[in-house]
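hiii, so i know i said id send this last week but things got crazy w the move. better late than never?? heres the sequnce for the chain we talked about at the cafe, plus the structure i predicted for it. fair warning i was half asleep when i ran it
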Amino acid sequence: MISKYIAARACLASYSGQRTFKHQPMSARTQHGVTLIELLVGLAIGLLTIAVAMGALMVSRGVSGTVTDASGIQQQAAYAMRVIGMQLRQAGSLRLNLNPGTSTAAEPYLAAVGFETTIPAASSPLESFDPARDTISGTASPVKLTVGFRRFTEPVFTNTAEQSLSRNCLGGPADDPATTDARLESIFELNGSDLRCSGNGAAFQPIVQNVANFQVRYQLQDNATTPGISTLKSVDASGVTSADWGKVQAVEVCLVLYGNESIDLPAGSNYTDCNGTTVDMSTLTGNRKSRMHVAFRNTFQLRSQGLVGSVL
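okay and structure toks below
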């Protein structure tokens, strides 16, 4: 009796362990998806996000382009002023002869020295030098500035022969035994939108582009001043006679440069030109239309000037 009961319980347990479950298909009413309206709303939100991102990108690019343009103008102006200023600061310099042979002394270092002022005319104009004539000159229309100074040699550590360490605006002439130039010459002029330079017979080469204006004024010693109380007057090249170039004390250089980026300029975006007039940048045309314009001014003092016109 007990054994039959145990067998029945074991059979029931075996039947319960072999029970299986079948997958019932989901009814169409119980499936969920995206409706057409929800899809359109998602697309609209995505397009709006892209539009906002593109607008921010364009604004960022515009600001970056304007900053880059302004930086480029500043670099161009700094380079131009450095080249012109280097030549003007050297203008009027003379050669110091440590052994002119005009006096004798017990010790060589006690011998008197002398400045060489003029070199007589030779076969080539560049082989001569007259500080009253070759230091500085220019024209008012078209604006042209010519600067010159002595090309003298001096002892150097890199060569047994004396060499000239000074150069003109183009970096020449080179230390060549065949070069007999006695002076260094630099000529600056505006050609279209290029400020270009030449010197010592070399062809003109542009040194700065996108130049809207180039003006030069000269600080001339006033002949009517009381001796000992010198005053200066600012004139252009037409106000300096051929006999007064030696009285020019300093040179004021003005450059107006414009950028490469086209920017949105509202009415009233002005800059002050070299002649002091106010220019509205939004009214400009051609290559200067919708371009940033910046004016730069600098004054450079000349060496030995004043003495050139009266003593030397």
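btw The mean pLDDT is 81. thought thatd interest u
miss u guys!!
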